[in-house]
Amino acid sequence: MEPKEPEAGKSRETRVRRRWVLPAGIDAAGLLSWRILGMVGVLVVIGYVIARLEEIVVPFLIALLITAFLKPLSNWLMSHRWPKWLAVIVSLVIAVGVISGMVVLVETQIASGLPDVEARSVIAYQEFRHFLGSSSLKISSGQLDTYLGNLVKELQQHGNEIFTGALLVGKTAGRLLAGTLLTVFATIVMLIDGAGVWAWTVRLFPRGIRPAVDGAGQAGWITLTSFVRVQILVAAGNGVGIGLVAFFIGMPLVVPLAIVVFLASFIPVIGAIVTGALAVLVALVYVGPIQGLIMLGGVLLVHLFEAHVMQPLAMGAAVKIHPLAVIFAVGAGSYIAGVPGALFAVPTVAVLNAMVLYLVKRPWRLPDQSAVESEAGLAATGADPSEQSPPQST
C-alpha cells in the first residue's frame, strides 16, 4: 500500500489553497473588470492620438462621409458602362456643383434681402426700446444708451485681444484650406481605389482574423452609406419644411435660413433643436408673435414627420440606433471634440454597432460563406490563394 503521509500533505496543501479561492461571482467580476479596463485604456489611447492628429483625422472622416455619399453614384455610372475615371469625375463635379450652388444662392439671397432686414431690424430695435421702458424693468432710453456706450468702450479697451483673435482666425483659415485639400485628395483616392485601400488595411492584420476584419469593415461601410443617405434625406426634409413655413409667414432671408437648417440637421437631434429655436426667434423678432407661434408649430410638425415617418421608412434596420443612444452620443461627442465630435458621433456609433454585431454573429466561420468571402476577397485584392489561411470551423 502507498503511504498516507503524502496524501495527507496534499490534502493540507489543497485546504490552504482553497482558503484563497474567491467565490465564482467575484472571480468572474474581476476578470470582466480587467477586460473593461483594458478596452477603456485602448479607447483612451485612440482618443488621445485622434486629438493630437485632429487636423488629419477630421479631413479623413469628412472624406469618408463624402465618399459614402458619392460611391453609390459612381458605382451606378460604372454599372452603365461608364469608364471609372469618368464616373469619378462626374460624381465629384456634381458634389462641387451642389456645394457651389448653395454658396452662390445664399450670397445672392443675402445681398438682395439685406435692405429689408436692415429696415426690419431698426423697427425691431425701436420696439425693443419701447418694451424695456414700458415693462416692469423700467429701463429708459438714456439708460439703454449708457449701457450700449459702456459696451462699446469695453470693446475698444480690449482691441488687442480682438486683433489677436483676428490673427487666430487667419491661422484657422490656413488650416481650413489645408484640411479642404486633404479632404478632396482623400475623397478622390477612395473613390478611385477604395477597395484596394481597404484590402491593404486588412493585410496589416494577422491571417487568422482577416476574414473577421474584412467582414466587419464591410458591414460598417454598408451602415455608413445608409446613414449618410438617410441624413441627407432628413436634412433636406427639415430644410424644405421649415423654409416653406418661413416663406408663408413672410420671414426675411428664407433661403439662407433653410440652408442653415439643412446643414445643421447633419448633427442629429441637437442641430434640429438649435435651428428650430433660431427660426422661431427670427420669426418673433422680424415678423411678430403670432407668426412666431405659427413657426413653432411648423417646426414641431416637421420634426414629428421626420421622427415618425422619414427616419423609420428610410433608415430601416441597417442603421437601427435607439434615440437615447443618439442623444448621449451627440452630447459626448460635442463635449469631447466640439462641433466635429457632434457631427461624427452618431455615424461612429452606428458603424461600431454594425461591426460589433457582425463579430458577435461570426458568419465568417460558416464553411459556405467563408469560402465565398475568401474568393471575393482574392478577386478584389489579386492576392495569391496560397497566402490565405483557411477559415476555422466550429
UniProtKB/TrEMBL annotation:
Coiled coil: none annotated. It is found in: Cell membrane. It holds the Pfam family AI-2E_transport. This is AI-2E family transporter. The chain crosses the membrane at residues 20-50, 56-73, 85-106, 176-200, 239-267, 273-305, 317-336. It comes from Paeniglutamicibacter antarcticus. Belongs to the autoinducer-2 exporter (AI-2E) (TC 2.A.86) family. Keywords: Cell membrane, Membrane, Transmembrane, Transmembrane helix, Transport. Residues 375-394 are annotated as: Disordered. Its main location: membrane. InterPro entries: AI-2E-like. The keyword Cell membrane applies. It is a multi-pass membrane protein.
